[in-house]
Amino acid sequence: MGQHRANTPPFISFIHVPARFFLGRRDRLYGNAFSNNVLSTPWLAYAKADSRYAGVDLTTLSLEILTVFLAGPLALYVAESVRRDVKGSGVGRISGATWFWATVLASGELYGG
Known about the structure:
Elements: H1 41-47, H2 58-89, H3 96-112
């Protein structure tokens, strides 16, 4: 565990293998830990608590893609649906479909997000 390969920086963990190389490309290191981009700075601060965000962890990447493309639009749909339900009924009754999708969104966040 304490030994390092010749061309691998010593601060890279061997527990998260995808954090070093992405898609088998050994000529480049991917991840926020190896970037000098301004957008990587907040992720480096977050990576102090969760090391998966410092590199390219395929599990984290796939969950973040699901969050951006599925949970984000679903959250907007639920918010708009609640707004319409409250505005239309006047007493704050929320439809069953809105409750269903809100429950789906909340369950997805509990298990995957």
